[in-house]
Amino acid sequence: MSAVRERDSKKIPVTEFMISDIEKNLKADQMDLLKLRESNILDLKHYANEATSKREDFVANLAKITKNLQETKDRSNELYASTNQISVDFSKVTDQLDFAASLVQRAEDMSIIITYIQEFNKPLEDPPMVRAPNQPPPDPNNPDNPPQEVLVPAFDPLDILLKSIKFPPTLYQCAELCAKLFKIVTSAERDYLQNARINLIQYRERLKDQLLEQFVANSKINKYEQAKCASALGLLSHEYEAMEAFIKSTPIMTDAGKKYHFKEKYLFEDESILLDHYKGLCSFFVTDCKKSWDLIDVIFTGSQQPKTVLVTTVFNTVFDAFISRVLNHYLETPSKQNRFCDMFYKLHNETDEMLKSIWALDGQTFSNQNIMENTFHNFQTSYETLETQALTNIMLEQVVPHLKKLRQIIENAKKWLTRKEEVSYDIFSEFNPQMPITILTNGAAAWERCVVLCDPQRKHQVLKSLIDLVIQANLREYLITYLEACRICMMKENDINTVPRFLAITSVINMSILTIEAKYSQILKPHLMQKPQYHEMFLRDRESLISSLEDGITKNLQICINIITDRVKSIVATKNFKNSFLQQNVDGSVSQSCKEICQILTGPNSVIQEATALSGDNNISFCSVLAKELIDTICNALFEVRYDFPEGTMQLSMDLNEYRNAFIKFNLDFVNIKFEDLDIAAKIMCTPADRIQMVKKDLQMTPKSIDLAKKLLPLRTDAKDEDLANAL
């Protein structure tokens, strides 16, 4: 055992051997890294030197390139300047060549023109006269007096002249040449070209006829050839003839359109059928224009003038005859005179709409007054007279009889009031709710016609007279007179049933005022503002009318309040009301007197229901005054009756709740507050005497409710026993 240990102790440790190897390897690697580092440093220095050398070469080359670029730019600028100079020189040379060629061409053209002028300046031959082929036959009744022989020129001297001249090949070129020659000859101030001027005038007329013939021949065949003809005629100052020829070929002027033209039999047909004929003519012409516009745009230069000429010509030829014949017939026929104004207006409007539709085809808007004036102006004076006359007749037939009857009722009613006679009259059956509408409808129709049809110089004067006739002389008189008749009759009758009927009528009066406002804005205002004096007069009259109507309505509403209050007072003055709160009369429901009062306010056709017809301020004033009067009347009556406890006080509470449900519909704040106080007072009335103070604290009573309770508590039948006068 000891031998083994000795042997093992002599061995070299393994770790010592491994560390020495690692150190050797590290030193070897370190030497290798140092060598590699030195090698890399040498390489980097070499590369740096090489890069420095290349950078110097690059900078030198860049400087050379910059220099070469600058030299190239300078040479480019020199080349640009040289090119511009060459262009200028070339242009000058070209202009000189063109001018030289132009002089040559102009010289040649002038030579040709002078030749033509010389040819046309030749005097025409004087042709001999020869016997005409067709001679008038002898008169068998007068053989001794033979007819005179007719002689004609042997030839046309202009034909001989024109055959000797060589003209351009086309008719259009001939027209251009003729226009040019005529312009030169006309501008010359010497007499030696007089023959040329005369001959050119004749030649121009011949060309015109030929061009018109060709224009018509190409109608509906070749619009481009028509355009050439129209242009050539324009050069000859005869474009209007081309327009006339075109118009004659349009459908409205041919057989297709003539079936829509005026016919005498139309005058004896119904008015609606007559207007249908005219509408058909207008519609056909608009359709015709839609087709013609495209042709006009191609054929004529400055196409708006030909379009205007077409419309004006057709209107003066076709529409004027239709309109004038119809309106003259209405003027001359007594049975139709009352329809003249309406017919005049309808024809005018239909015509105006037709022309607007035609101008709209091109997106244009023109005044139609110039086209329509010549036709309609002839009837304006008659219209102004008949309009006033017709409106006056309507008022005489429909309004004046009612006015007379109302005035008679007023006179009779005044006598009834004075004599206290037991005579009644149902004034409300005399009110026709359609009458104000009829007056304003007829008036507005007349105003609308007036602003369109009247002569502008007299329009405002006529309009003012029509306004006065409608509003002042009839509507105002009718409504004011009726309100006065209502006032007297309601005072005489003192019948509560008249109140809802009057309130319903006020809605018609309010509607009349609103209608006046609407018609003023729609029709009258734009025209009256053109004449401030008439506008101010209208505004004053309107305010006067409204003020008078409001005054009349206010007086009548006060009478209504008095009638209702008197009726309620009569109810609360009855024994039935006074005994309603005694034990033997309490049946557990609302008292009969309370039902009657609430029925007045909320029943069918009731006061509150009809009061909604009143306008804003009138409604509030009427309802406020009426509610206060009625509440005070009821309260005062309740303060004068006796209440059994608890049956009678419970009856009081039920009645007050019913009153509250009725009065709440007035929609007034003070009414709600009043019944809240009454409700609190009723609760106190229903409270046993020993608990009143406790209930008072719980109810948080207001001073007004306390005051009401103090007035009611002493009226309880147990007041003395319980000392209720001092309970609060």
Automatic annotation (TrEMBL):
Residues 173-727 form the Exocyst complex component Sec10-like alpha-helical bundle domain. GO terms for cellular component: exocyst. Residues 125-149 are annotated as: Disordered. Residues 134-146 have a biased composition (Pro residues). One of its GO terms (biological process) is Golgi to plasma membrane transport. This is Exocyst complex component Sec10-like alpha-helical bundle domain-containing protein. It comes from Trichomonas vaginalis (strain ATCC PRA-98 / G3).
